[in-house]
Amino acid sequence: MARNTLAAAAETKTTPLGVCAPDDDVLLEASALRKAYGSGDSSVTVLDSVNLSLRAGEMVAIVGPSGSGKSTLLHLLAALDTPTSGTVYFEKKTLETYRDEAVAEFRNRRIGFVWQRHHLLPDFTAAENVAMPLLMRDSSLDSALEVAGRWLKEVGLESRMQHRASQLSGGEQQRVAIARALVGGPSLLLADEPTGDLDERNSSAIMDLIERLHRTHQLTSILATHNPVLAKRCDRILRLEHGLLQPDAVDQQAPSSAVEGEKS
What we know:
Number of domains: 1
Shape: globular
Number of helices: 9
CATH superfamily: P-loop containing nucleotide triphosphate hydrolases
Number of strands: 10
Strand order of the largest sheet: 6-7-8-3-9-10
Largest sheet: 6 strands, mixed
Low-confidence stretches: 3-22, 254-264
CATH topology: Rossmann fold
CATH architecture: 3-Layer(aba) Sandwich
Strand content: 15-25%
């Protein structure tokens, strides 16, 4: 399973659907989320009655085949899209109650989003790319670049701050994207296939970085991935398939094998 298997098994109470039981530590919750595109006979349901409860400090992996709706789910949780029906709660407050400007501020301050394709601005430096979320808050350029520089140092790119994004390797670009996602001090990190465009060595290095930042900055994180090796490094694994979110079979089997390993 995941790291801290025994602790996670002992501390996480689950319903039959593998959703954490109600808890004061719940940061994010989705209730009966449904997302459909089109109408009538041409309607396609991507998500169907998805329930999810995420406790503060958890790192959860969502796995599933391409096209299963992992990106759609993350977009709903980040208020980048709206569900056809159902509700997303953040700190027990429904996102539906946020006005447009409040939703934008929520995304800027509380959510860090890492895309599979980094979406950096190629003609801007690494520091300028990381500073963008702060500039959107009307921070001064000097102040934003100073904070961006600290984050680039933390992700190991201190020497690349003044390089344009187009001059960086794929692994470096994703490190810049992670720094950009976290520069505003969010409490929730959502990463959509963050290693999908990287080779095995860089994928492992990026996951190491995400785990370290998750721990040192006390984040709550959801990673959508098709990589089972990376998924097993998370606290829980949920599988999204045919519009339904369920506990992953491999993840459910792990506690017993982990206990046997402890006994041997």
